[in-house]
Amino acid sequence: MIHLGNYNTLEVLRSTSVGVFLGDGEGTEVLLPNKYVPDGIDLGQEIKVFCYLDHMERPIATTLEPLIIRDGFAKLKVMEVNDFGAFVDWGLEKQLLVPFRQQQIKLEAGKYYVIHCYLDEKSFRLVGSTKIDKFLNNDQVGLEINQEVDLMVYKKTDLGLSVIINQRHQGLVFSNDVFKNVRVGDQLKGYIKNIRPDNKIDVTLQPIGVEALDFNANKVLELVKNAGGYLPLHDKSDPEAIKESVQLSKKAFKKAIGILYKKRLITIDEEGITLTTED
């Protein structure tokens, strides 16, 4: 079976004037046009290709790598808006359509949006949507507290950042857990902070507990090294100055420099912290 909107490993069946036909071993064939046929490819050889629908809505293969695959999420640029909807660049010749009915807000040409790609069951076409929430599912989470996860920010709210967890779950990073500038579409590492009885997931951008102390201590140590061995911050510095400089809360910063001080890696005075060793 050939999976539209995804990568497929297919066998080269025959060569024609327009390209080579690839097969899945089950009788289904798809054309790989000449411009994508690698030099020296032989009959019977297997090749990894991406399959989608061309301008005539026919299945076609390409060796180009798309910016998004079926059931995935990515930040994409709107290239054109017409009577059918918005067309976004997903790295292929034919742009991906985001129909008006699948736009959370009206999309504008030249701007970037977080897009979900899916196969429309009625039209059997690959289309995009900015209605991200409806494509995320927290019914079977299978995550653990403090587990490291991949995040994509898709919306800012009054509470904080709405994020996509591991390309399938919905989570929230509360504003008081954000200590750096983050934009919609950014991809980050995060850590599961809490999974509520209703399966809502709270996420933080730093590890929790003892691991966080080591993580933050190493982070501060690297900042001191990169600053030439001195950082004009200490345990009594203004919280906003700490947040802007090291992207940590004052509490986390104080714990971090406390670890470094106990290990005799830094000294602390009323002016700031100074490196005492190269390691």
UniProtKB/TrEMBL annotation:
GO terms for molecular function: nucleic acid binding. It holds the Pfam family WHD_CvfB. Residues 3-64, 144-206 form the S1 motif domain. Signal peptide: none annotated. Belongs to the CvfB family. This is GntR family transcriptional regulator. It comes from Croceivirga radicis. The lineage of its organism: Bacteria, Pseudomonadati, Bacteroidota, Flavobacteriia, Flavobacteriales.
